[in-house]
Amino acid sequence: MPTQPSYTRVAKIAGHLAPAPTSATAQVETGEGVVNDPGFSGSYAGNYKIRDLSLAARGRKELLMAEVEMPGLMNCRKEFGASKPLAGARVMGSLHMTVQTAVLMETLHHLGADVRWATCNIFSTQDEAAAACVAAKSAAVYAWKGQTVQEYWECMDAVITWKDGEGMDIIVDDGGDVTLLIHEGFAAEQKFAKDPSYRTDVKGADNEEFACVLATINKSLEKDPTRFTRMVKRLVGVSEETTTGVHRLQVMAKEGSLLFPAINVNDSVTKSKFDNLYGTRHSLPDGLMRATDVMIAGKMAVVGGYGDVGKGSAAAMKACGARVVVTEIDPICALQACMEGYTVLTVEDVVEVADIFVTTTGNRDIITIDHMKKMKHNAIVANVGHFDLEIDVEGLYKAGFKKSELKPQTDIFTNPETGTDVIVLAEGRLMNLGCATGHPSFVMSNSFTNQVLAQLDLWANRNTGKYSNQVYLLSKELDEKVARLHLDACGAKLTRLTDVQADYIGVSKDGPYKQPLYRY
Ligand SMILES: NC(=O)c1ccc[n+]([C@@H]2O[C@H](COP(=O)([O-])OP(=O)(O)OC[C@H]3O[C@@H](n4cnc5c(N)ncnc54)[C@H](O)[C@@H]3O)[C@@H](O)[C@H]2O)c1
C-alpha cells in the first residue's frame, strides 16, 4: 500500500527544507499574536505575516491600476456590494498572493466576507500586494516571496483558524493544497479519536513536502485534536482554480472521500480557455525574458503538452520567432499542434539540439535527469504546470550538478562530467509566477469573476441541499455573463439574434448560445 493517497503530490527538492536564498534576508513582519517559531499549528496565529508592511503604498497603486483592468470583479462589487451577500461568511484562500488576487480578496471583502489568505506557491507572492491588503485590513495575509516549504505549510495552517479557534466557511483553492491539508488533518483526527497516542508517520512520507504536511498535522493534534473535524463540519465548500486541483478533487469525489462540495472554476470556459491559454501566452515569455533576457527568436523551443497552457506557450514562443516543437501523448492535441504548424516529436528527438524546454502537462517526469545530461550548453528548462514534478530538479542535485544562483529563481546547474550548464527557472516551479508576476489583470478578471460567482453560490446554497460532496461546474449562463462583462473593455459590440434566428438555431435570444458539449 502506498503511504500517501493518490491525490497527494510529491515535491522532490530536499533543498526546500532549508531556508530558500531569498528568505535568508527576509524581514518578515508579524501581526498581533503571531507565534513565529517553530510554526503556529493548531491555534489562532494573528492577522498577518508578510515581508514588509511599508510596501503597502506601492501595492495600493498597483491594485488601483489592476482594478481598471478587472471589469468583471469591479462589476461584482457594483452589482452585489450593497446587499453584502457574503456577510457572515469566513472565506479562506490559498491562491498566488499577487496584485490580481488582492483585487479578488478585496472584492470578497467588499461583498461582506471575512477573509484570510495564504499563497499556493513559495515564489509567487508579490509582497507589495500582500502589504496593501494587510494595511487596508481587507484580509489577514500569511505570504511572502521566497518562503521555505515548511514556512509555506505553516502559513497555510495559520490562515485556516480564526480568533475563536474555528475554521472557515468557504475556501478558494488553487492546486488543492488546503483541501489536501484538511482531508489529511481530518483523517488523522479520526485515528486520534480512537487512539490518542496516534501521530502521523512523518518519517514514512515518501517526500519532504508531504512530511511537512504530516508534521503540521501532528502539531495540531497536540494542540486541538478536533480542529479539522469541526472545520469539515462547518465547511460549505471549495471553489478550485486550476486543472491540477480539479484533477485531485475528481479523484476524491470518485473515491467517495471528498468531504465537502466543490465548484470546478477551471473548466468554466471563461477560465481555462482564457487564463490558461492567453494568460500563459503573456506570462511565459515575460518570465523567460526577466529571468534570462535570452533572445527567443531563432531558438528551438520545446513545449511539453499541448493542452490549454501548452497552446498558449507554443503560441508565445512562435510569436517570439522560435522554432517550436510540441510533445504530446494525446493524438487529438498532437494533431491540433500539427494543424498550427508546429513540429510534433518526442523530447528524446530534440533534447540535444533544443534551446528552451517548457513543461505544461500537469503530469510528472517530463524532463528527466537523463534529458538534462544531454542538453546543450545553456539550455533553459522551465515549467508552467502547477507542481514542480515535471522537471527532475532533484535529479540534478543527485547527479552532482553544481548549482550556482544567477539571481533569485534563476539557477545555473553545471554538469560535472561535461562542464555544460543547464539554466533552471524557479527551481522547476511555476516560472511565470516565480520569475515574473503571473498572468495580467484583465485575463485574471475572467477567472476571478468565476471565483466570486462560485463563492456566492456556495454560500447562498449552504442550507438548500443544492450541493453534495461532488465536483460541480458553474452554469453556462454565468460563464456567458463573465464574458459579457469583459466585452466593453475590448470595444466589442455583440450582434443580437432576431426572433427568427433564435428560433432557427434553437436558442434563447438571451443565451445560453451553445449546447453543453460545445468545445469552443
Ligand atoms: N502557470 C500558470 O499560470 C497556469 C495556469 C493555468 C493552469 N496551469 C497548470 O498547467 C498545467 C496544464 O494545464 P492545462 O489546463 O493546459 O491542462 P490540459 O489537460 O489542458 O493539458 C495538459 C496536456 O499535457 C498532455 N500531456 C500529459 N502528459 C504528457 C506527457 N508525458 N508528455 C506530453 N504531453 C503530456 C495532455 O495530453 C494534455 O494535452 C496544470 O498543472 C495546470 O494546473 C498553470
Notes on the structure:
The chain has 520 residues and is of the alpha/beta class. 41% of the residues lie in helices and 13% in strands. The chain is built from 19 helices and 17 strands. The strands form two sheets. It has a nine-stranded mixed sheet, sandwiched between helices. Helix 14 (369-374) links the parallel strand 12 and strand 13 (379-383). Residues 7-26 and 33-39 have low confidence and may be disordered. Bound molecules: nicotinamide-adenine-dinucleotide. The site of nicotinamide-adenine-dinucleotide has 32 residues, from helix 9, helix 10 and helix 11.
SSE inventory with pairings:
Layout: E1 29-30, E2 48-50, H1 56-68, H2 71-80, E3 90-94, H3 99-110, E4 114-118, H4 127-136, E5 140-142, H5 149-159, E6 170-173, H6 177-194, H7 208-223, H8 227-234, E7 237-240, H9 243-255, E8 262-264, H10 269-292, E9 300-304, H11 308-319, E10 323-327, H12 331-339, E11 343-344, H13 347-350, E12 356-359, H14 369-374, E13 379-383, H15 393-398, E14 402-407, E15 410-414, E16 421-425, H16 431-434, H17 441-460, E17 471-472, H18 476-487, H19 499-505
Parallel strand pairs: 2-5, 3-4, 3-6, 4-5, 6-7, 7-8, 8-17, 9-10, 9-12, 10-11, 12-13, 13-16
Antiparallel strand pairs: 1-2, 14-15, 15-16
The structure holds nicotinamide-adenine-dinucleotide (NAD).
Nicotinamide-adenine-dinucleotide binds at residues 242-244, 272, 275-276, 279-280, 304-310, 327-330, 333, 360-363, 366, 384-386, 430, 432, 438-439.
